[in-house]
Amino acid sequence: MKIKSSILVNISKFEDIIKYKFKNKKFILEALTHSSYSNENKSYSFNERLEFLGDSVLGIVISDYLFQNEQDLPEGELTKLRANIVCEESLSDVAKEINLGKHILLGRGEEATGGRDRISILADAFEAVIAAIYLDGGVENAKEFILDHMESIIQDSIKGRIFRDYKTHLQEVVQSKGESVISYNLVEEIGPDHNKRFVMEVSLDDKALGRGEGKSKKEAEQSAAKQALRRMI
């Protein structure tokens, strides 16, 4: 497939930002292609498979970094730290820093509804870019990209400046106000099986406090707890 000159210019500008030049432009093209664009341009492959791979590469790089550099922390604390660093919100923050949203190829409908700023789209594309670098240049280049662009989030998480275990925080707030029962309920499942989104609702003594969406039920629960905290604190 011949890549359009306008898209090659878009790729080149993004390469300048991330300071990595792809030998095979098809990897980064796929990483930057959202399913909505692929639906309108059938010859373009969208980035969900790369997202799957990038998630695993990201996980091993962050796990290795924490294992090597935080040797006094037990497994439970390392797990919490890693979850904080690789969560959807963290990834979307980094994606915004490298202006990833501007370079994603979106369909007209997704563009019109603010897709370039949507947390889930940004986080997914960031993981896809990681996979593209891994396939094009190997694990060391992927590792360099991750640690370079996520350094501030990693360090802030280690120092406790970022707290994104909203479920635990909500539980602590509720307990401080007296005995109450928190429950999480699945409200809706959105999308096909290979790209499903979950909507969860958190309730306090059967009173709904927040609702959140995520790629997994746990992620959606965290989002719901975050919304509940905003209402309570």
From TrEMBL:
The keyword Chaperone does not apply. Residues 165-233 form the DRBM domain. Residues 210-233 are annotated as: Disordered. Its EC number is 3.1.26.3. Mg(2+) binds at residues 51, 124, 127. It is found in: Cytoplasm. It is an enzyme of class 3 (hydrolase). It catalyses: Endonucleolytic cleavage to 5'-phosphomonoester. It holds the Pfam family dsrm. Signal peptide: none annotated. Its main location: cytoplasm. PANTHER family: RIBONUCLEASE 3, RIBONUCLEASE III. NCBIfam families: RNaseIII. Digests double-stranded RNA. Involved in the processing of primary rRNA transcript to yield the immediate precursors to the large and small rRNAs (23S and 16S). Processes some mRNAs, and tRNAs when they are encoded in the rRNA operon. Processes pre-crRNA and tracrRNA of type II CRISPR loci if present in the organism. Homodimer. This is Ribonuclease 3. It comes from Paraclostridium ghonii.
